[in-house]
């Protein structure tokens, strides 16, 4: 009687462990799919892939401009902000080009190097842009990214999705997938050992 209870409990534990392993594998597959349709296209779309050194030539704050209204957004999302323009000397080619914060900055407003998020306090936006401009004037040389193919003549300060960020995004689903497969393998080994013991 006790032996039957132990066998039943063992089977229930194996079933639960097997469901856990399959659930982890399924969740990791969903995460792979989500990363594949969101982050990977932005990573492959970016042409600014080569890192070099940029030297600041000038960093000026122009008159206020309006953040261009993105497609499908409301009119109240348009807000004015000082336009920071940073021109740098590209070490790789020696050209004088305009610097943008990220790939998204160029798409939102190609006239400005930095596009702030919408803030209610315009003084805070102005102070932030002035701080960024003073930092560029203070630190003359810094790493930046350019397009080696020459499609884009401008440069960006940082990529939205660098190689390390992409690898980190794939790290968690990979660990989950490995853990799920390991649980399934251990359950199958346990079942095989149980059948072998019973047969003997």
Automatic annotation (TrEMBL):
The chain crosses the membrane at residues 20-43, 166-187. One of its GO terms (molecular function) is calcium-activated potassium channel activity. It holds the Pfam family CaKB. It is a multi-pass membrane protein. It comes from the Eukaryota. Keywords: Glycoprotein, Ion channel, Ion transport, Membrane, Transmembrane, Transmembrane helix, Transport. This is KCMB1 protein. The keyword Signal does not apply. GO terms for cellular component: voltage-gated potassium channel complex. It comes from Pomatostomus ruficeps (Chestnut-crowned babbler). The gene is Kcnmb1. One of its GO terms (biological process) is detection of calcium ion. Belongs to the KCNMB (TC 8.A.14.1) family. KCNMB1 subfamily. The keyword Transport applies. Its main location: membrane. It is found in: Membrane.
């Amino acid at each position: 009687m006790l032996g039957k209870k132990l066998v039943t409990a063992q089977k229930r534990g194996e079933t639960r462990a097997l469901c856990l392993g399959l659930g982890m594998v399924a969740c990791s597959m969903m995460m792979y799919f989500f990363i594949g349709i969101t982050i990977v296209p932005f990573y492959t779309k970016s042409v600014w892939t080569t890192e070099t050194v940029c030297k600041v030539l000038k960093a000026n704050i122009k008159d206020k401009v309006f953040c261009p209204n993105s497609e499908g957004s409301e009119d109240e999302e348009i807000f004015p902000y000082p336009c920071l323009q940073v021109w740098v000397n590209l070490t790789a080619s020696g050209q004088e080009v305009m610097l943008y914060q990220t790939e998204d900055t160029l798409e939102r407003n190609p006239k400005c190097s930095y596009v702030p998020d919408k803030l209610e306090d315009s003084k805070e936006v102005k102070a932030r842009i002035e701080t960024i401009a003073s930092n560029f004037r203070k630190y003359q040389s810094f790493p930046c990214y350019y397009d080696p193919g020459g499609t884009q003549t401008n440069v960006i300060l940082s990529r939205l999705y660098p190689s390390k960020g992409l690898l980190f995004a794939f790290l968690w689903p990979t660990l989950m997938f490995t853990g799920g497969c390991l649980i399934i393998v251990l359950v199958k080994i346990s079942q095989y050992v149980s059948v072998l013991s019973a047969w003997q």
